[in-house]
């Protein structure tokens, strides 16, 4: 017998006497469940160690109720990742530039009236075809659809908060790199409309972050670009606030911007045009808006001194005080400025500027409002003084343009 065959025989004999060292032990059903639970716990602990802790598992008699409410809320809003790695992955997967281009399609059943336009927008973004003018067109289309679907009689109430259009455009600006350059602010119609959507959708916190950032840049670097960005963002943001039914947010925003300018040691005249726009909407265009509370109106009016605004703007605001309107400043203004208007109109060349100068438009509106207020207070003689002044200006305008003066537009 060979040596190899001898070893095989010895090995077989030992194997028959000693059981295998790694032979699995038989487990009962209870032991199997315990092992499974232990493996699950160990696996979850390892995941938590790598990705951060996960929410505590539901337990107790309230678990079924919590699960029910959680499932209901999940239908209303998408899951929000909490772990750092999940947040990073979520941002990558939701980048609009990385979305696969697919043919826009309408979902079956009853959907949002904005779905098709939003799908077309995302299609254009995914193909790299989106531009500022096209994004403006998209917002206009959504705005018109929302305007058509509203039942409100208010000229300014348009339900934009449920459209999601502002968020889509904001995501595109971020993904395309235009978010931090602020180049989009050069298109006033687009930027005001975008900011209007963002305010309605509760995204105005991002605008305050932009304002803080550009003001710090303008304060520290003091370049022409940062100064222009700061000016435009302030003006367009406040303009968007004047497109709502009430001016409460417009007043509070102007007051807050003034505080930010002082904090960053920037000139307050950056706020001048925005302040005048709100003043115009508070007076000439007041019929569109609900009255603001005195607690916001008075601090706003008081800013006119620091901002060095014209006397006629302050006089007009006094006539629209929510609880104590006054025509005293208007009377003072017309007594002092009569000769100025004659000089102004004598220099007006309708061939070069066919429309009435905005400054004169505003003063005409002030005179009419002041005369109405004085008439209602039985101060007829003082009302006639202002009416005589307005009539003289109107006659001179008709001589210059042959009868047409155009409509009133915001004068800033």
Rg (CA only): 35 Å
Distance between the termini: 116 Å
Low-pLDDT stretches are 54-81, 100-109, 403-408
Q: Please tally the helical runs, counting DSSP H or I stretches of 4 or more residues.
A: 17
State the helical fraction.
55-70%
Q: What share of the residues does DSSP label as strand, in percent?
A: under 5%
The chain-level structural class is mainly alpha
Region (Disordered): 1-87
Biased composition (Low complexity): 63-75
Protein name: NWD NACHT-NTPase N-terminal domain-containing protein
Biased composition (Basic and acidic residues): 76-87
Summarize the structure.
The chain has 412 residues and is mostly helical. The protein is built from 17 helices and no strands.
Task: Please give the structural blueprint.
Elements: H1 3-17, H2 29-51, H3 63-76, H4 84-93, H5 115-126, H6 132-149, H7 165-175, H8 188-200, H9 204-220, H10 224-241, H11 248-263, H12 272-282, H13 294-306, H14 311-319, H15 328-346, H16 358-376, H17 380-401
Helix pairs in contact: 6-8, 7-8, 8-10, 9-10, 10-11, 10-12, 11-13, 12-14, 14-15, 14-16, 15-16, 15-17, 16-17
Give a verbal description of the structure.
This protein has 412 residues and is an all-alpha fold. It is 63% helix and 0% strand. The chain contains 17 helices and no strands. Helix 9 (204-220) packs antiparallel against helix 10 (224-241) and helix 10 runs parallel beside helix 12 (272-282). It starts with a helix and ends in an 11-residue tail after the last helix. The model is unreliable at 54-81, 100-109 and 403-408 (pLDDT under 50). Residues 76-87 have a biased composition (Basic and acidic residues).
